[in-house]
Design brief:
This protein is mostly beta strands. It has helices at residues 6-16, 289-292, 312-330; strands spanning 47-51, 59-60, 63-70, 79-82, 85-86, 91-94, 97-103, 108-116, 119-128, 166-169, 175-179, 187-193, 199-201, 214-216, 222-224, 226-234, 237-244, 264-270, 297-305, 335-339, 347-348. α1 (6-16) runs parallel beside α3.
Length: 349
């Protein structure tokens, strides 16, 4: 189904606070999830697949965080197949099974299987492009890219050689092509709160600034006030994910370090009224230091600012896709609180 009522979109927004999912160009079709074979009734000889980052029919961007429920004796014997082919997934052990991110999903229906001998389960994941749309129908045009403003400050990616689209030029003013999706390469930056209470860029050479402030977490740890921020594009809008983080190490794996995250997530909405046709900008509330200093993570999208547009179906779709991205990279939060004045609503789950 390509279109959804405003009431249905807000219902989807409520769903986002527990699990969410993501975007596509046309409505793909596929079979419903089903087990491949009846498993023995003994719970020690059964496995069960589920998706943590979204509903199975609303996966976006080609990847999803999955959970495999399995008894300890089976966990090192399981094989994962994607569309009939073995797929390599780094799975970590959790209390009731295994958890990890599967990638390489094609647009449309994908069959993910887990098996060990005759013990098996399967799930159909319907994947949509990260540029959207998922259920909101044709995207609005013309659409103005705003990636060269504010916290992003870089050109959008060229995705078309011809107009229509946002004209992309090099430093000399020569036309490089056009951007219809206003996408950017995802990037991560680090800032620190100085002793005056302001944010400043963290030195890239690994030195600790003399005016670095510290913060005491709820568990009593005293840590440097360093904020890691991820910025990218989802559903043609700009998103931001921020949380306290250890000072980055040389390897990029440190960018996923969640040791200072308390497991709680704030989704920052924003108010206003607008007619759309613009990508909007990342709101300053996405770096609220009072919230970050308590160990919370903050996620935000310019598509969840009613000062960017007032399409509630599109806002719900964008929130689903954006929270999916958070879960895929950082894991499932203990709960999520939405905060947003007239552009959102305060709630938690």
């Amino acid at each position: 189904m390509r279109h959804m009522s405003a009431a249905a979109a807000w219902a989807a927004g409520v769903l986002l606070l527990s699990a969410c999912g993501g975007g596509g160009d046309s409505a793909p079709t596929g079979e419903l999830a089903r087990p491949l074979a009846a498993a023995p009734s003994d719970s020690a000889m059964t496995v069960k697949l589920s998706v943590l980052s979204s509903a199975p029919e609303f996966v976006s961007g080609g990847d999803a965080r999955i959970h495999v429920r399995a008894a300890p004796g089976l966990r090192d014997k399981l094989v994962l197949l994607l569309n009939g082919q073995p797929v390599s997934v780094t799975l970590k052990e959790v209390a009731n099974g295994l958890e990890g991110v599967v990638s390489g999903l094609r647009n449309g229906a994908n069959v993910l299987e887990v098996k060990h001998g005759n013990v098996r389960d399967a799930l159909t994941l319907t994947n949509w492009p990260i540029t959207g749309p998922m259920f909101t129908g044709p995207q609005q045009t013309p659409f103005v890219c705003t990636t060269i403003q504010g916290a992003v400050n870089r050109q959008p990616l060229v995705d078309s050689a011809t107009a229509p689209g946002y004209k992309v030029s090099n430093a000399a003013g020569a036309n490089l092509g056009y951007s219809r999706n206003c996408s950017i390469e995802t990037f991560v930056s680090y800032s620190y709160r100085n002793t005056s209470g302001a944010l400043a860029p963290l030195p890239s050479d690994g030195t600790r600034p003399a005016n670095m402030s510290t913060v005491t977490l709820a568990d009593g740890r005293v840590v440097d006030f360093v904020v890691r921020r991820e910025i990218g594009s989802i559903n043609r809008f700009l998103y931001s994910i921020a949380m306290l983080a250890p000072t980055p190490a040389a390897d990029t794996a440190a960018q996923d370090d969640t040791r200072l995250w308390n497991g709680k997530l704030l989704y920052w909405f924003q108010g206003g009224v607008a007619i759309g046709h613009s990508q909007g900008t990342v709101h300053g509330g996405s770096m609220n230091l009072d919230v970050l200093g308590q160990g919370w993570a903050i996620v935000h999208s310019s598509g969840n600012n009613t000062g960017t547009h007032y399409n509630m179906n599109l806002a719900g779709e964008t929130a689903l896709m954006t929270k999916e991205r958070f879960i895929e990279r950082y894991g499932v939060p203990l709960y999520t609180v939405g905060l947003g004045g007239s552009g959102g609503r305060s709630s938690s789950t």
